[in-house]
Design goal:
This protein has 232 residues and is mostly helical. The protein is 56% helix and 7% strand. Strand 1 and strand 2 form a beta hairpin. The radius of gyration is 25 Å and the shape is globular.
């Protein structure tokens, strides 16, 4: 009890002597770092850019938060792959989700290498992509929709109104469709193998997920007469 009284007394003294401290504590909430602590810069490309522009000298003596356990400067670190792994994860089984993604990348590598060695034309051979991460980024980019249908009620009737979506929402829908398409498979086909096939098809701008995106855009085009309900 005495310790609590001493702490409250010292807190009142500090709060009175430093007027901005109470604002900092209120804005910071439950974080262990004050709000004026900056986020760490863990990517080497960003660090090199800060050194070139001279901004790194301004951040040398700034108080910095500790980096999270998934923030690393490793060249194999990919934020989009980590996000995709989190979307695959169920019930907190992160090692299982990470293993499925790694196995899918391994299957992509094997399929592309087999295609590469079977190809006889040097020009077609040079166009075959062998990096699974590049294929993954192409697949996600090709499956991103730019419009979506939103139900809006007017006069007792619900209209499917086409509206543009944000980049973050578009990326989420792209990865969600890839996961759902990979789950629609035969019983004797493993999830990671089907995911590899879907990523390869999407990277080549074909497959079920690309068709789903195109169908959505066709529906938005068909319902363009209801577009004005977005503002009314």
């Amino acid at each position: 009890m005495a310790a609590i009284k001493l702490f409250s007394k010292n807190f009142q003294i500090i709060k009175g002597s430093v007027p901005n401290l109470s604002i900092i504590i209120q804005k910071n909430g439950m974080s262990q770092y004050p709000s004026y602590y900056i986020q760490p810069v863990h990517k080497k490309e960003v660090q090199e850019e800060l050194v070139k522009t001279g901004e790194a000298q301004k951040l040398v003596h700034m108080p910095t938060r500790a980096a999270l356990n998934n923030q690393t400067c490793s060249p194999t670190q990919d934020d989009l792959v980590s996000l995709f792994t989190n979307y695959i994860m169920r019930d907190g089984l992160k090692p299982l989700a990470r293993g499925l993604v790694e196995q899918a990348f391994e299957n992509i590598k094997r399929i592309q290498l087999e295609k590469y060695h079977k190809c006889q034309d040097p020009e077609e051979k040079a166009q075959i992509e062998l990096d699974p991460r590049v294929i993954f980024h192409k697949a996600v980019e090709n499956c991103k929709p730019i419009m979506n249908l939103t139900p809006i009620k007017r006069g007792g009737v619900r209209y499917q109104v086409p509206v543009p979506i944000t980049r973050k929402r578009s990326q989420f829908m792209s990865m969600k469709w890839l996961i759902l398409a990979s789950k629609e498979k035969d019983k004797n086909v493993r999830f990671h193998y089907q995911l590899a096939l879907e990523l390869i098809d999407a990277a080549n701008n074909k497959g079920r997920v690309v068709k789903r995106k195109q169908d959505l855009h066709k529906q938005c085009e068909a319902n363009r007469a209801y577009a004005h309900y977005r503002w009314s």
